[in-house]
Specification:
alpha+beta, single chain, 10 helices, 47% helix, 7 strands, seven-stranded mixed β-sheet
Amino acid sequence: MDLHALIRAEAPVAEQQRALTEPVLTALVDHGVHRLIAPKRYGGAELGLPQWSREVQELSRSDASTGWTAMTTTISSSLAWYLPTDAADEVFGDPRALIAGTAAPLGKAVETDGGYRVTGRWGWGSAVTHASWVIGGTLTPVGPRLAVYPREDVTIHDTWHAAGLRATSSHEFSLTNAFLPSRRAVWPIGIAPGIEGPITVFPYFSFLAVGVASVCLGVARRAIDEIEALAVEKVPQYATSRLAEQTGVQIELALMEARLSSATAFLHETLSAAWDAALTGAAAADPVKARLRLACSFASGEATDVTQKAFAAGGGSSVFESSALQRCLRDAHVAAQHTVVSRRMLETYSMLKLGLAPDMTRF
């Protein structure tokens, strides 16, 4: 079965069990989706980020939880570029291993022989239940680090009972007094990476913003697909013509398409400009980073609004579990709640343009 057909067929079951199904997980790994932007040394495809964004959009068009899982695990696998080679070989040596986790520095490290002892608890651990290694942002005596822990050191807490993205298994996880060798802790900014490549020049903390925006765009595209299909079939109660023949629906659908296409084009334009700079080895200037994050937040907001409009246009048909529109509505709203695409990013862009010197350390 085609990968996208499989994802769509399995999505209702994944939604019910709050985790992707084994056939989908196996297919994602078989297709190398979890290593799309990882180095070839570790079975990665080394995709350029504009192409990666399009892949995430298409996966999310099939199912948001699958797209989100692919997005977060590929970002986690990008750490293979930054870790020292011996640590990257240890973590990424198995080309089928999934890596998951979160960058928030909620682990507390105490120095010990050869590394640290770490205790912490993290949220939003998307796909952590499927991972062989888990990333947890950790505050060490020398500053924050992205630290990688073996799955057996980690306790997973069943906390992901959410309105949308239900099958992402984004549970909280914790560890207590775990040993962390220094080689498995790195900060991906201002260092010589283990493996050189354009991705290590691209602003690291923009990966996730691009990924979240790409998921939102894919969900909105699915919502438009669904309302188009419904419109040619449905005659609403007390009406005499199909939705497709009603002027209001025709206008609404055209505006949905215009808004989604515009947001998608804006993201692609700004992402391509930042990626082109990375290909030359040039670090992105603050205006480039700010514009990229503006495009990410704008795309997420527009996609959520478009999805809402598609859901509303479907009327009562949209509310049932059998309708993909209700799942799109919930998934889009949950994805767009992520802090990396919040409206605060709009403030940062304008502050920079107006000479107000915003904090851009996480851009």
